[in-house]
Amino acid sequence: MRRLKQNDEVEVIAGKDKGKRGKVIRYWDKERVVVENINLVKRHTRSNPVQGTPGGIIDKEMPINISNIALVNPTTNKRDKVGFKFLEDGTKVRYFKSNGEVIAE
User: What is the DSSP letter of 18?
Assistant: First the structure.
């Protein structure tokens, strides 16, 4: 089980986009994720009439290391650490360490 999942709201804690928030779009690999509107770069693309893509300069999201982002607790609206615990029925869940609240999946 991973500490971050798709559609989790995160905040950047280090780097050029420090303080910005966004949703996790997808995992890039084991250590990096792509976050919505974070770590944008300019990409010069050539038009492709077969695929219907226009040419020009577009903004593209690049992956960011998971050590540079933190999950946002919706009740306190602040970033928080994530832990794991087992419930009485034996299921493993994520929870916020500050208040012990289980993270909705």
Answer: T
